[in-house]
Amino acid sequence: MRGKDVYFFHRVLASARQKVAQALVNGEALKVSGGNYKLAQHNLKCRSCGHHWEGTIHRRRTQCPSCCGKNWQRIEPINANRED
Ligand SMILES: [Zn+2]
Fold it and tell me: From the CA of 25, how far away is ligand 1's center (Å)?
């Protein structure tokens, strides 16, 4: 990156950090848009019915696709092949 690009990149990053920090401190919602991004997928297990599934984690919204329960837990695969 050239000097001007680095400067611009750091300004964008600083602005994003401030927005995230403000949202966390004030309990506000964050909306992410633009660009390509993907939420991490996790192995989840329902504590109510025992159903296993793979999905994204959202503390309040994630629910069991089988019984719609919100009492779930994240489980890590035994042989995790991480690509990142
Ligand atoms: Zn369930």
Answer: 32
